[in-house]
Amino acid sequence: MPPAVEQAMISKTLRELFLAANRVLVLTGAGVSAESGVPTFRGGGQSAVWKGLPFEVISSAAMLERDLPAVWEWFNYRRNLLVQLRPNAAHTTIASWQDRFSDLSLVTQNIDGLHQAAGSRDVIELHGNVWRARCFDCDARYSLDDLSRDEAVPSCFDCGGNLRPDVVLFGEMLPPGAFERAADAAQRCELCFIVGTSAVVYPAASIPEIARGNGAYLVEVNPERTQLSDLCDEVLMGKAGEVLPLLRR
Ligand code: APR
Predict the structure, then answer these.
(1) Which of 127, 132, 134, 164 is catalytic?
(2) 31-43 confidence digits (pLDDT tens)
(3) What is the DSSP-derived secondary structure letter of residue 183?
(4) Which terminus in the chain has less CB density within 10 A, N or C?
(5) Count of CB atoms situated within 10 Å of the CB of 191
(6) What is the CATH number of domain 43-84+132-167?
(7) Class of the CATH domain delimited by 3-38+86-127+173-248
């Protein structure tokens, strides 16, 4: 643990707030999983590409219409990357906060399930989860563990319809109720942490703005400045797995 970082980074105000707060909101993005080995989408100036296709294309509703097997192949590739990865100190620290604060809300844009693997309960998943699938026709939900991996496109056990990854693709709406729950948490929180997101994708990026509008203290944790940095009361420039464990009673 780099002691210099500890003194320099965490302000007295934040330490006092962290000690006194009850209602805390944490919004996470791909950066919180970076130290686990999950590639981010945009950090470092370039964006992810797969088989020559920018991820915004392969991960789009249009591609779902045009080539469903290709979308499954892309998410099978993401899953194969993820399957051997483990939560890092950022995930485990956030998980420990759920027993520390009487009202902790964890909102994630990530589909990797690493928050749950670290022990976080009741995670608000804005963009779905790569370990689940759902039926186009009857909306039945499945864990990938229950599906055979031989089929290019698995079928629904109930109605025989095609299944699709239970992930929000570009051009699609968020899961019903997910944003509303996140916005509720933003309206009531005293302290809001924004961890590992470039804050370019809406409506997720509007959640800190709602928290700010309700007088919450905003703290960004990211090795790079983002579009939200100027809105924040405090910007902790560093890796989430190194910075978050510094916050303790
Ligand atoms: N700790 C904290 N932040 C980090 C770390 C780290 N170790 N490593 C990288 N970052 C930061 C980067 O600087 C960048 O600002 O994480 C951010 C990752 O940004 P994106 O790749 O744009 O990911 P995210 O903000 O989650 O993207 C939002 O866009 O692609 C869609 O649906 C996808 O949920 C995703 C959404």
Answers:
(1) 127
(2) 999 999 998 877 5
(3) H
(4) C
(5) 22
(6) 3.30.1600.10
(7) alpha beta
